Amino acid sequence: MIFSSLLLENAVNEFSKLPGVGKKTALRLVLHLLKKDKAEVQSFSNAITTLKEDIFLCSRCKNLSDRPICNICSSSGRNHQQICVVENVRDVIAIESTQQFNGLYHILGGVISPLDGIGPDQLEINSLVERVGSEKIEELIFALSPNIQGDTTIYYIGKQLKEHPVKITTISRGIAFGGELEYADEMTLARSISNRIAFENYVGNGKL
User: Fold this and answer.
1) Which of 14, 32, 155, 208 has the CA that lies 20 to 30 A from 52?
2) How large is the angle between the packed helices 186-194 and 89-98, nearest 10 degrees?
3) What contacts 122, CB < 8 A, 6 or more positions away?
4) pLDDT in tens, 149-199
């Protein structure tokens, strides 16, 4: 792709660094911004800069937040004895969109995947175990993507919690094995949460 302007080329190169954005899409986005007035472009730029500088990682659940503790963790209207364990922020957004879960969350930051060099120590597993003990959690719901890596992570954490009197459940298999949680439609995801199964049955059925 040949550009008549170095400024245009630099902007396209920066946009194309975003996931899923190729050079043609990046060019289209940059040309779109050039058609906007200066105030709109400045507002866009300020939003990105402020996001990077001022956003917090919730000290309890590791969700993105405007404050040190997110709105979900600080809400008195949530069930504070129930934690839904997910891989990332996108999964929290997907589950919240179903309006079928009223507990808290814990974001692991991924799943155990030796082939990708991701082990338990690189995830927020220790902090989860600490929360279960210190916050007197009654139920832990695993809502990880139904694949080998997700199942391995569930099994590992289950073993770490064997000394804790906490009920452990997983979402039902409404989501196809190998699928990603964030791409499930809201109705399927809501049904999977409502029809969750006990961890013992999950293991007993040969899922792990």
Assistant:
1) 32
2) 90
3) 109, 110
4) 998 999 999 999 989 999 999 886 555 444 455 655 665 666 667 667 676
